[in-house]
Amino acid sequence: MISITLEPIDLCNILAEAKDRSAGGTALFIGSVRDHNERETIYEIYYEAYKEMAEQNLTEIENEVRKKWNIKRFVAVHRTGNLKVGDISIAVAVSAEHRKEAFEACKYGVDVIKHEVPIWKKEISGSGGKWVVGIPLKTD
């Protein structure tokens, strides 16, 4: 399941989608809005995406993950719109026969999503709003 949505992310649904009878492990990453950045207090974040392209990129990332690891399921959901502190902005779940594959594939998927998918964020703070520039992905 791949999705860009305005709706709150349902973690029970994410885990249900990642479930596979032949999987011995499922790794789940949950990203949420925190109350600060390096400089100031953050009150909310506005996420914007080019939905069609973002969902296509997520599908390509899933295919790449499947080539690198023997996984069973890959689930990635990212929210858009105004999110308050504590709201879940992204959830990625990967199931595999073994935990090592699930952990590695999940971490890789999250890292690539954060750096390559056309989703932008604007941090809202006491000094106003500021679009945040991403950090380039380091490939080893």
Task: For this entry, give a set of tags.
3 helices, Aldehyde Oxidoreductase, domain 3, single chain, elongated, 140 residues, 8 strands, alpha+beta, 4-stranded mixed β-sheet
Explain the overall architecture.
The chain is α+β, with helices and mostly antiparallel strands. Helices cover 31% and strands 38% of the residues. The protein has one domain (2-127): Molybdopterin biosynthesis MoaE subunit (Aldehyde Oxidoreductase, domain 3). The mean pLDDT is 95.
The topology string of helices and strands comes to: EHEEHEEEHEE
Here the CATH topology equals: Aldehyde Oxidoreductase, domain 3
Fraction of helical residues? 25-40%
CATH superfamily assignment?
Answer: Molybdopterin biosynthesis MoaE subunit
Which architecture name does CATH use? Alpha-Beta Complex
Please state roughly what percent of the residues sit in beta strands, choosing from under 5%, 5-15%, 15-25%, 25-35%, 35-45% or over 45%.
35-45%
> Mean of the pLDDT scores?
95
Termini Cα gap: 28 Å
